[in-house]
Structure formats: structure tokens, C-alpha cells
Amino acid sequence: MLRLPNFEVRTPERLDEAVALLAELGEGARVIAGGTDLVPNMKHELFTPRVLVSLARLPELRGIGDAGPGWLRIGAMTSLADVAADARVEQHAPALAQAAGLVAGPQLRTMGTLGGNVLLDTRCQWYNQTYFWREALGFCLKKDGTLCHVVEGGSKCVAAASNDTAPALMTVRAELVFAGPDGRRVTPIDDLWIADGIANKKCGRDEILVEVRLPHSGSGHRGAYGKLRDRGSIDFPLLGVAVKLELNTEDAVADADVVLTALQARPVRIKRASELLRGVRIGTEAFLAAARGVAEQAHKQAHPMPNIPGDADWRRAMVPVYVRRTLEAAATRAGPVHAV
Amino acid sequence: MAARDLHGIGAPWGDRSPGDPENRAFEVIGKPHRKVDGLAKATGRAQYTDDLVLPGMLHAKTLRSPHAHARIVAIDTTRAQALPGVHAVITGRDLPIQYGVIPWTQDENALAVDKVRFVGDAVAAVAAVDEDTANAALKLIRVEYEPLHAFLDPEESLARSEPRIHDDSKTGNVSKHVRLDFGDVETALASADVVLEGDYVFHGTTHAAIEPHCALAQWSAEGLLTVWSSTQITHYVQRALAKVLELPIHKIRVIQPALGGAFGGKSDPFSLEFCVAKLAMLTGRPVKMLYTREEVFYCHRGRHPMQLHYRTGASKDGKIAAVDAKILIDGGAYSSFGLVTTYYAGQLLTGPYHFPNYRFDSTRVFTNKPPCGPKRGHGSVQPRFAFEVQLDELAERIALDPIELRRRNFQGDFTRTVNGQRITSNGFLACLDEVERASGWRARRGKLGFGRGLGVAGSMSISGTNYPVYPNKMPQAGIQLAAERSGRVTVFTGGNDIGQGSNSVVAYVVAEELGMDVADVRVVAADTDLVPVDLGAYSSRVTFMVGNATIDAARKLRASIVLAIAKEWQVDAARVRMANGRVFDTESTERSITTAEAFQIAEAHCDTLGSTGSYNTPTLGGDYRGGTIGASPAYSFTAHVVEASVDVETGRITCHAVWIAHDCGRALNPMLVAGQMEGSAYMGIAEALLEEHGVNRFGLHAGPSLLDYRIPTSVDTPELAALIVESLDPEGPYGAKEAGEGPLHPSLPALSNAIFDAVGVRLRELPFTPAKVLRALAEKDARSAPVARGRA
Ligand SMILES: Cc1cc2nc3c(=O)[nH]c(=O)nc-3n(C[C@H](O)[C@H](O)[C@H](O)COP(=O)(O)OP(=O)(O)OC[C@H]3O[C@@H](n4cnc5c(N)ncnc54)[C@H](O)[C@@H]3O)c2cc1C
Ligand code: SF4
Predict the structure, then answer these.
(1) In terms of pTM, does the model score above 0.90?
(2) Which residues of B lie inside 8 Å of A (Cβ-Cβ)?
(3) What is the pLDDT of residues B525-545, one digit of tens each?
(4) Which CATH number, 3.30.390.50, 3.40.50.300, 3.30.70.260, 1.10.274.10, labels domain A221-332?
């Protein structure tokens, strides 16, 4: 078995204590939630924190409930299994419930948290490897090296955002509540991302994600998640597609949103999705045609690179197929779209 | 010579012809008994090598090469040696003697001497107080390398002999070349009505057994070396240790604890066994080494990538006239079993169909990649894939049902193959009938609508071979029985139970022969100090050979017990029977004693009770160089039908079901046989759809983890229907043949053939990734006028 580097674990019982601890410990500390991303990464010596600050005992980070009128809150430490099974999440953000239910496999969804998923490190076949392997390669730009191997001689890290819940949260305009040394801050999840594979999130090392807030949705809300992967379980996405449709009382689209992940360093919103679908009634030929239009737009916009395993050309060819199928699934409440 | 006695196919005490009412029915054989180690494994109590802890034990780690091909200029271990907690550091200089499982091609060193040949090749080993200290020490070892050109493409190894991967090779970078001709292939092809010709590719896969390799060594004050190892070949490991460590073989004891899967991946001696032994000898302390998952991928010995070219000639009614094969085999960095692989690639194709003329030309080359070796269906899965797809193409060409085509070419039973192999029982036709019936073939094939289809394939496999790896005239399998006055029998077997259930089989056989409860039979296995030699768990030889040896020993023991009881009762020995835990007089029912009482009487009459038994193969094989390689005392036969569908938009294949009909001679335990059949088909489909073992452009393993090496999960596994066919072979124990490897072969071609039925494209290159399927569909569309079809 690969060994974990040595570290110490602290388990603060209050949020302010945890924040203070992070500030005090500085660079050598890292937050651990379920550990399902961090622990393998530590075994690969991608991170070698001296101290892990566990969030396991912070009550503010637990549970799903109301966050004032019109808002649902999901504590950052809520397990993905709980997110996937929750009736309120299913009602207000079906795409999120579906995405959470397709992360990894059952054991990992029990340990893995929503907060950890939002803050998941980017992934790359040249990076998520053991120290020995990376050293034999001569390392890469993201960690310990100077070159990018995705594009030969490349000088920019394009490791892929690979968290399934992120695009789903973006389609429902979720907000993130962070606690840091300067108090709380609330930020729309859209504003979290940077197009840089080395660190694709605007989030300080000393900040703790407390909760994720979702606006309540109305009866016209439809959502679905489509996930491409080799196996029916365990694997990270080779492509993730989150879809939202807001229908009016005539079942025509009033608003739509499509966000893709596992392409490049940040999730990608498909342009003109709402414009192409607006006014079209679901269940009609016109809807299928509009869905095809969005799929074409997605194909134009999406350029998967050989950053994660799998044939990048095939991943690109799957973009329009999965966008179209996920739109249809959202309309008919038939999500998720997932082979096997 | 007892070893060559045939025991017959019937139950003991009634060796009449099958079906004869005089035959006593089997009491144990043929019933779904639990495995002898089933409960221990299910409850987590089985002890695997890594569970063993000895007082004062050190932990060892291996330093590995970051280069695919390089000369070692210098190694400096002084800093590692100086690290507190480090007890010893060794390099290739400490273990300079070469070894290899095949005596003629010993080209491996426990640690690299002068040269490294793939990324991950072992260079040095450290023993320290704990794993972390050993790992820290590895980082302090300085190795200076002079990189050499790395061969990643087998074609290049064929074309270029410099630089040489093995400096002393007389054949450049060619590891082995075999060409064998039977009959007159060219003439037959020239006069055939139809000739099919095509190229096929097998990509390379590995075993992915759940237990990583582990070894623990102890060096005693008396100079005795004990090595516990997760091996499937205790006997060969013992021999290899003796050679490399220059110790007398009788001073070495090798023990195989419970094993967490092997599939051929633990049938070579491995670097860690020598390293822990040497480190234990140097430090005087027990030393353990457990490989990481990544290291298991570097050990590899998985299925060889092959490029296969086949030509098949046939008459227009589908009779095969000639088969011509040319095969390029990518061996990776070392020989391993490669000599055998190169033969098997050709020798094992000559059934279940009659080939009047046959030729194969196979070449194994070295490349700078993890070494390939034997994986379940060693050497024969790749050619079988190519040939069975080509047979399907033949069926298509002459518009004949693919099952019918296979029937027409059936070679028959009790015959000889074109390459001189003796075929005994052959239930292949029954296998075809079974899969045809169970899959609803006649009503459903070609009628499931565009996108879904059925495919068939057949195969033949060996139940061990008469090639003993190192030439000798001694039995291939030996057994010792000790019957104790408590009524317990202990079986001492060299057989390696690697999860296939061979320890259970010997217990069943003894219980059957002595009329005892299986629970009263204990099995001591795979400990070279305690058991007679068995050659190991490979080539599906254990149940067949050890089973026969056990019958041999049990019948001898039974004879002495029966004789003693007959004397005691003063009756004719023919009246004494053993059954249901009792010994009784068939003519006087009140005369009946327990097995324990019988053992006591027998012990009083004859002394301590015990017996030995053995098995050796008959003289087999063709009369030509290599003619014994692949010559098996009995062949198993298999047919599969696979049902699969294709999503024509994504190219993704879903394998819905595999009907597996396998002729295993006699199912000694149908539950274990079905388990082997299902596991085999699972593995075959996995190799066809998902698994791929390769290196990237830098020569680094493409993803040495169970996340990136995609073995199917339970949700990816098709329905598997095991249909057991029993042909009752005269040579096998109670008529049994193998069941652990044969049922893998047809899975891959049957899937390809099902895809053809589904969407009309031929997949000749493994694995069948969605991208390849889409390309094939696009090529087909480009060839034909666009067909109207409902896109999803
Ligand atoms: C085999 C395998 C397969 C996987 N497959 C998938 C998949 O298909 N899809 C997918 O999206 N993920 C997958 N994952 C990744 C992981 O399991 C999930 O993303 C999970 O949600 C991570 O949550 P966690 O609580 O375990 O995070 P952790 O590992 O504890 O943390 C992840 C990162 O987030 C930080 N962090 C966590 N919580 C907070 C917080 N509240 N505030 C501040 N920082 C925080 C940590 O410091 C760390 O950097 C897989 C992992 C494995 C091992
Ligand atoms: S994209 Fe991959 S290879 Fe390139 S720098 Fe990022 S992690 Fe490294």
C-alpha cells in the first residue's frame, strides 16, 4: 500500500476556532472533510500538509434545511449520499441530486462531502499519479515541474475541473458561504472559478466553506445531469453536463442553462442556451430542434484536451450527444443520462 | 506404475460404465459443497501473507528505474545505509545470479545488474524498521543512469537489433521465434473455394488480482531459510531461491499462505522473494515486502499484446481446408514464460475444429515495457479471438449460420489434431447445442433489430500439459495422506490453491473415497517442508493432476483399511464398504463401525496409517521440436453466445448476457465450476471492453492504479449463465477436466461477432472502445449507401 506522509490532525469544535487555527497554522495546514480527494492526493505527495484541520465536529457545517425565505441550505459537510437522497434537493435542484448520486461509487459518496466536491482539486493523467511515476516523468507544471505534457511543450496548466456537482450548482445559481479571518462572505458559485488548472478556485487556504445555498425553484423547474464515464460506477466524469429548464404554465421554456465540466480547468457555460430554447414547448419537434441547436453550440465551444484519460476526440464527439440527451431528459424528468 | 493408473470415471465401489445401476452414486463429488476455506475468507479470518507478523520483523521496499532503458553507471547507497532505522541496502551486485521460470531463458535478476529495461524495473532494496523509514532511505539512494534508446513498438524490436535489450542475446531483440507447418497449407489455400484474410490486434491486459504480491522471509540460526509468499508456484520459487542464493534446496522452505487471486500473475519467481530472503540473511531478522498496487502493475506478466494475421481457406459448404497464422508478440522486457507463449499462440488453436492443414509463425520480441507472461488462457486467448472472428466472417461469406459452421468443422472425440495432440473426450457439440438453446439463437439471431445482436464462438483449452517446465521423470503431482485414530484424515498436497478451490477438491476426493464427511478431512497445502512436490497452479493442471494423485493415494489407503477390517471381521474384503462416516459389511447390516473405529482397527493391524499417491501424464505430443508444448492429457471445450447492443451515437457497447457452455469432463463441484465459468467470462468481456495495459509515449505505465486500469464493477457485469457440459473424460479424476481458463476464450470473439450481428461492423482490434466502434460505423456508412435507421 502507498504510505501517507506524516501529519497531525486537529478537530476544532467551533467554526471560529477552526478559522483561527487555519490562520495560525498558515501554509502547512489544510482542511479535511471526507478526505476522499485529499487522502489519495496526499499519498501521491501532491499535498504534504503538516496539519489537517478536520471539519467533522463543526455543527454549522451539517445538515440540509431552510436558509431564510426562498432558500435551501446544504451544510458543506453533508455527504453526497445524503444530498442525492434528499427530497428537498430533488425538488429544488434535481440536477444536483442526480450529479451527487453519480459521484464515484457508494462508499465514496458516504464519505465524500458536498463541500469537498465543490472544492475538488483539478485532475490530469500526468498529475494524479504517484511520486515515483511523476518523478520518472520529470514532473509537470502543476506540481514540482516546469512543463505541461498535455500539449507537448505547453506552458499553461489545463488540468480538468472534475467535480460533478459544480455544473449542477451553477445551473441553479447556487451561492457559497465561506468563513474566513475577515468573517463571512457569500459568493455566487459562478464567481468561484479561474481558468487555471493549477488552482482553479478563488478561495483562500484559510477559508472554510460553510454551506451551499440554493434558491427555491418553482413547479416549472426541470433539471438533469448527464455523465460520461467508462464504467457504471467509481470513475470521475469524462464529461459532465448539467441542464436547467424553467417552464412557464404552457410548458414552454422561459429560461434555460447548460453547464459542462471535465473539459478544461473550469466548468463551461454554454452560450445562448436560453436564447435558443426560449419559447419552445417541451415534447415538440421544435424542442428537439432547439436542443440540437444548443448541442451544436456546445460542440463549438467545447474543446476537451488529453488532460484526463480517454480519447479526447471521442469526448468532444460526445459533447453534443450528451447535451441533447440531457436536455431531453430534463424536459421529460428522465435524468440522469448515464450509460450502464 | 501407480502414477499412470487410470481411475475410471465412476464413483468408488462401483466402477461400471456410466449409467449402470450397479454403480454407487457419488456422495460428495458432483455436489455443491462449500470450499474448505470459504468461511475463513468470508469472515475475514483467512491469513494472507501480509497478515503475518514475526517478532523483530523489518520492512523492505524496492527502488525502481525511472527509465525505460538505461545503463546503470553507478549506484551510491551510503546515505541510505546511514539513515537511522535502516538495517540493510542491497543492489544487483548482491544478487548477481540470473533466474527465470523457464530454465532455457533465465534472463532476470532480482535487482538490475548494469542495466534497467523498463520503467519500474527493480534496482535496489532496503530493509528498515518500518515502511516509512525504508521509503525515506530509497530517496537517499543515488543512481546514475545512461539512458538508451527505448523500444516501445514491437515492430521496431523486430527491425532493429541495436541497442540490444539483453546484451547477450544471439537473436537481437527477438525473444523467441517458432514456425511449424502441418500438411500443405499453400496448396490447400490455392484450391480452397473461399479464402479469408485479415489482421487482428490484441492490446495487452493484466491480471489485477486483489491481493498485491507480498513475501516474508526468515533466516534461522541453523541456516534454514523460510519464505512465505503470495505465489502460485511454491516449488519453482524454492528452486529459484536455491539457485540465486546459492543455498542447498533442502535448506529452503517456501510456504504459500491464503492467496487473494493470481490468474497467472503469481506464477513467476519475483524480485521481492529474493530480496526479502537476502535481506533476512544479511540482517538476521525477518523481512517482509508488500508491493504497492503500482508495483503490481510493473510486475505484470499479463497477457501479451499480439498482432495477428490469419488466412483461412474453406470449401463453399464451410469445411476448413487450411489455416495460416503469422503472429507478432510484444513480450516486454523479460522472457518469463515467453518461450511457452510463443508456442501456445499456435499450438492450442487446433481444436475443436478439424484443420487438415495448418501453419503458424510466431515471433516474440523484447520491448522496454513491463514483462508479459501467463494470464488465464495463456497464449491462446489472442489467437482464439482472431480465428473465431475470422470463422464468423467465413460464415457470413458463405451465408451459413455461425453455429452450423462450427458444427460442420467439429473434429470429433478420441482423435488426433493436425499438430499431433491427443484429443480424448470432446463435448463441444453439446456445448454448441446448449448455448444455441439457452440464448434462443434460432428465434433471435439477426432478429433483434438494428443495434442489438447475438454472437457465438468456441474454443479448446488444456488440463495441464506434460511439459514439466524443467525436464524430469518424476511425477507432476504427489499426495500424502495420514489417517489418524480420531477419524481424521490429513492430506498433504503441494497444490497451490489460488482461490480456484484445489484444496477443496482434494478434500472432496478423500471424503468420497473413504466415505467420510468433508469436514473430517484437513488439507495441508503448499508448504515445501511438509508436502510432496506439485509443480504449481498454472495451465489448469491442479484439479486434474492433483485430483488424480489424490484418488491414487486414497484408494491405496482405502485398500489397507478395508483389508484390515476384513481380517478383523473375518469376511471377504469385497464385503467391506466405507460410506456416510461408517464402515460396514454389505452382507450383514448389523456389522457397522464408525470411520474412527475402523482407523483404530486398521492402525492396530497395519501400523500408522498413511499412503502416497501421484500422477504423471502419459507420453503425449507431436514428434517434433516443441511437440510436447501444449500437449495435454485432456482438453476442455467451450462455446459462448454473447448478447450485446450498440449505442450508435456514442459507440458504447453494452454486453447484456453471456451464455457459457463448458465441457469440464465432470463437475467435481458444480458450484465451483460455475464460479470459474462466470469469472472467466467476466474477465474476457472486461478485456474486450474496458481493460488496457499499456505505456504512454514516455514509456511510463499509462495508469498503474485500479482507478485508471478499468476493471468492470458489478454494475458493468453482464448476466452470466453457466451451462455445464459433462463429457466424462477417461483420463481425468472421475472424468473431470479443467474449468478455470477455457471458459474465458470465446468471450472476446463472441462479443465481436455479436456486434456484427447488431450493427454490421467487424471489430478486429481490441479493446472495443466506443471511439473505435464509431469509426467502424462511419467507415461502414461511407462504404454503403446511407441506410435509413432510427438514430437515437
Ligand atoms: C476512486 C475515486 C473516484 C472519484 N470519483 C469522483 C467522481 O466521479 N466525481 C467527483 O466529483 N469526484 C469524485 N471523486 C472525488 C471525491 O470523492 C469527491 O469529489 C468528494 O466529494 C470529495 O469530498 P471530500 O469531503 O472527501 O473532500 P476532501 O478530500 O476532504 O477535500 C477535498 C478538497 O477540498 C477541501 N475542502 C473540503 N471541504 C472543505 C470546506 N468545507 N472548506 C474548505 N475547504 C474544504 C480540502 O482541503 C481538499 O483540498 C472520486 C474520488 C475517488 C477516490
Ligand atoms: S495540464 Fe496536466 S500536465 Fe499540464 S501542467 Fe496541468 S497537471 Fe500538469
Answers:
(1) yes
(2) 64, 66-67, 119, 131-132, 135, 212, 290, 292-294, 647, 649-652, 654, 690, 698, 700-705, 707-708, 710, 712-716, 769-771, 774
(3) 999 999 999 999 999 999 999
(4) 3.30.390.50
